[in-house]
Amino acid sequence: MIFVGDDWAEDHHDVVIFDETGKALVGHRRLPALKDPLGREQGLGTSNPALQPGAA
To answer: What are phi and psi of 37, to 5 degrees?
Structure first.
């Protein structure tokens, strides 16, 4: 199981993904606000380099 913390703002979202122990799997990422909130059109998912471990 994973948990996602999302600080939703008008122009961006601050996101952190945690495992069930509370360990951050993906550190803090800032993503732009999207017209498509599920990210389907922008390809936001596990293939997005910004969400990969070690991404800046």
So the answer is: -60, -20
Number of domains in the chain: 1
Q: What is the DSSP letter of 38?
A: T
Token code pair at residue 10: 């008008």
Q: How many Cα atoms within 13 Å fall on the side-chain side of residue 38?
A: 1
State which residues form the domain around 19.
2-51
40 Cβ neighbours under 8 A, 6+ residues apart: none
Q: Report the distance separating Cα 16 and Cα 54, nearest Å.
A: 13
pLDDT digits (tens, 9 = 90+) for 3-43: 988 888 888 888 899 999 999 887 788 888 766 655 555 55
- On whether residue 24 sits in a domain, the answer given is yes
What single DSSP character describes residue 53? T
